[in-house]
Amino acid sequence: MLSLLVFGRLRTVVGALLVVALLVGGAFAAGVVGVPSVAGVENRFGPVNETTTVVETDLVVSNPNPIGVSLGGLTVDYDVRLNDVSLASGVKEGLQVGTGNTTVRFRTAARNERIPPWWVSHVRNGERTTVTVDTAVESSTLGRTVDPPNVTRQVETDLLSQFNSSETRPVNANRPFVSDPVLYVNETRAQWGTVTDAETPMRLDFVVYNPKPYPIGVSRLGYDITMNDVAVGNGTTDSEYVIPPKSSRTVEATVSIRNDRIDEWWVTHLERNQVTDLRVEFAARLELSTTAIRVPLDSLTYTRTIETDIFGTKPRVENGTATSETATATPSEGTSDDAATETASPTPTAAPTPDSTETATATPTPTATASSGDSGTTTTDGGLIEIG
Question: Does residue 175 sit in helix, strand or coil?
Answer without folding.
Answer: coil
